[in-house]
Design a protein that fits this description.
Layout (H helix, E strand, L loop, with lengths): L1 E4 L7 H9 L7 H20 L4 E8 L2 E8 L3 E7 L3 H10 L4 E11 L5 E9 L7 E5 L2 E2 L3 H10 L7 E10 H10 L5 E9 L1 E2 L5 E2 L5 H6 L4
Parallel strand pairs: 1-10, 4-5, 4-7, 7-9, 8-9, 9-10
Antiparallel strand pairs: 2-3, 5-6, 11-12
C-alpha cells in the first residue's frame, strides 16, 4: 500500500485541517462541513493526477482544441455519516462518478472493546473501476477494512484510493497489514500519534459526525 501524507508539503490544505481541528471554529457546523468539502476537493485533484487519460478534442466557437481527458470509471464510496461532506467534495470534482454508501458503527462491550457492525451497503459494480473510499477519521482502521471487503463483493477495482483527512499511526499500520500492497493508496492530511483507550484519535478533532450534523443520542 502506498501512503501519501499531503501535510508533508505546505499548501492551503494546512489551513483547512487546522480549522476542522480548532474547537472554536468547530462551533460553526456549516463551516466545519464546508472545510471537509474543500478538503475533499483537494484530495480529488491530487488523485486525478494518478488517473488514466486519453487524447480528445472539443469544438470551441473558433475551432478545434486538443485536450487530455480522464478515461477511468470511478466509484466514490463513503462511510456514513461523518464522511458525507468529504464525499461531496470529491463528487464536486469527480462529478461523473458512481456512488456507494456504507453504514457502519462501533458496538461497544466491556473494557471499551468494540466490534464494527456493518448494517447497510449500496454500491454499483466496482469491477475494473477506480474505487475511492472516503472517511474523515482513520482511527483503528477496522471499519475501512470491513467496508473495503464488502465493496469487493461488487467486483475487483483496477485501483483503490482511501481518503482520510485525519489518521492515527495505529490505523495506518493496520491498513498496511490488512490491505493489498498493489494498486492501493492511502491519502491522509495528518497523522496523529495517539489513540485513547476508547480508540479516539489524539489530538484528532473530536466526533466528526456530531461536528458536521449535530449531536446524536
Amino acid at each position: 500500500m502506498t501512503i501519501i501524507n499531503l501535510s508533508d508539503g505546505n499548501s492551503v490544505l494546512n489551513q483547512f485541517i487546522a480549522e476542522i481541528r480548532d474547537k472554536d471554529v468547530q462551533k460553526n457546523h456549516m463551516r466545519f462541513r464546508r472545510n471537509l468539502e474543500r478538503i475533499g476537493e483537494i484530495f480529488a485533484y491530487e488523485i486525478s493526477r494518478r488517473l488514466n487519460y486519453r487524447p480528445g478534442e472539443v469544438t470551441t466557437p473558433l475551432g478545434i482544441a486538443e485536450c487530455s481527458l480522464p478515461c477511468d470509471e470511478i466509484v466514490l464510496a463513503t462511510i456514513l455519516r461523518a464522511g458525507l461532506p468529504l464525499h461531496n467534495g470529491l463528487l464536486n470534482y469527480f462529478d461523473r462518478a458512481q456512488n456507494a454508501f456504507i453504514a457502519a458503527y462501533r458496538k461497544y462491550g466491556k473494557d471499551n472493546k468494540f466490534d464494527i457492525k456493518l448494517e447497510y451497503c449500496t454500491s454499483p459494480s466496482v469491477d475494473g473501476k477506480v474505487l475511492i473510499i472516503a472517511d474523515t477519521m482513520l482511527a483503528t482502521g477496522a471499519s475501512l477494512v470491513i467496508a473495503y471487503q464488502k465493496l469487493l463483493e461488487q467486483g475487483t477495482p483496477s485501483a483503490t484510493h482511501f481518503v482520510c483527512p485525519i489518521a492515527s499511526c495505529y490505523g495506518v499500520e493496520y491498513l498496511s497489514k490488512n490491505l493489498p500492497h498493489k494498486n492501493v493508496t492511502l491519502w491522509v492530511g495528518a497523522i496523529d500519534e495517539e489513540l485513547t483507550n476508547k480508540s479516539y484519535i489524539v489530538p484528532g478533532l473530536g466526533d466528526a459526525g456530531d461536528l458536521a450534523f449535530g449531536d446524536k443520542l
